[in-house]
């Protein structure tokens, strides 16, 4: 087949040949012929997928000489080659030294990702004007997590003599955790200064009559009170429904029947209510004379 695949371009000439020989009715050509004539297909320029001999069917392998691995269906000899050939079309993973530092910082400070960031630069060379040896605060750059990463990288590459240690080669060095602690404390210090500046600016503005409306705490309390009141109303309704449901389970029919029986038996003698009492009374009268006769 060669370097290029011309089979898609041969579809239209083959269809015309079939129409000319009469194998396809000239009055009913394929509906795609007009489209292919206007927009001819291009050759496939991507690389073919690598086919391993173990993934090839027996029919395809039988076409090769003695059914062995051929150039079209090579056979791999080791697991190492197998692993390398499977990843032949997989792009290489690109990694940078800052990736692990970024993951450590943002895992410890997840709310920093919620702060708005400006990624637009004036000339694209703003980083050339930054000098991380002077500290974490740089002119023209907003303080964020990336400042901590850059400051940490600089401290690891250029450890300060007062904080560095000496390795076996008597060379100064600083550990990643130590550099992270230094950059993190500088970050906290400047963030605290920003909070103080905002608080003072708000107090000065309120002193001259500015009104900022409810703050985030007041708004959250209002929302919480609203949700609580809605829940309280719903709970009272549920309690009322349960009380009505419990009261409706007893209709009072048995009580009405009992009251009717009591009212109908009012004024009757004891013997009328229970005939057995009358028999006992008769038996008692007969037993008295017999006892007297026996005496």
UniProtKB/TrEMBL annotation:
Domain of life of the native organism: Eukaryota
Family recorded in the similarity comment: Belongs to the mitochondrion-specific ribosomal protein mS23 family.
Mitochondrion among the record's keywords? yes
Main location class? mitochondrion
Identification of the protein by name: Small ribosomal subunit protein mS23
- What does UniProt give as the signal peptide span? none
Q: Which InterPro entries match?
A: Ribosomal_mS23_fun
Q: Name one GO cellular component term.
A: mitochondrial small ribosomal subunit
Organism expressing this protein natively: Venturia nashicola
């Amino acid at each position: 087949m060669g370097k290029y695949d011309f089979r898609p371009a041969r579809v239209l000439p083959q269809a015309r040949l079939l129409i000319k020989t009469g194998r396809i009715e000239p009055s009913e050509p394929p509906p795609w012929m007009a489209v292919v004539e206007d927009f001819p297909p291009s050759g496939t320029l991507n690389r073919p997928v690598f086919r391993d001999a173990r993934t090839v069917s027996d029919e395809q392998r039988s076409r090769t000489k003695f059914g062995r691995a051929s150039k079209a269906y090579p056979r791999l000899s080791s697991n190492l080659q197998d692993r390398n050939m499977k990843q032949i079309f997989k792009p290489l993973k690109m990694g940078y030294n800052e990736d692990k530092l970024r993951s450590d910082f943002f895992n410890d400070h997840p709310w920093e990702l919620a702060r708005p960031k400006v990624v637009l630069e004036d000339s694209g060379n703003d980083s050339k004007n930054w000098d991380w040896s002077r500290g974490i605060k740089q002119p023209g750059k907003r303080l964020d997590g990336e400042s901590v990463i850059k400051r940490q990288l600089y401290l690891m590459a250029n450890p300060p003599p007062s904080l560095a240690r000496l390795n076996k080669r008597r060379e100064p060095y600083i550990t990643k955790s130590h550099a992270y602690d230094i950059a993190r404390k500088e970050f906290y210090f400047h963030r605290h200064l920003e909070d103080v500046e905002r608080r003072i600016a708000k107090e000065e503005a309120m002193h001259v009559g500015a009104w900022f409306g409810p703050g985030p705490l007041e708004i959250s309390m209002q929302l919480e009170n609203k949700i609580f009141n809605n829940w309280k109303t719903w709970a009272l309704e549920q309690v009322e429904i349960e009380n009505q449901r419990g009261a409706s389970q007893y209709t009072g029919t048995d009580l009405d029947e009992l009251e009717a029986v009591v009212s109908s038996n009012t004024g009757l003698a004891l013997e009328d209510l229970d005939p057995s009492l009358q028999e006992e009374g008769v038996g008692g009268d007969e037993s008295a004379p017999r006892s007297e006769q026996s005496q």
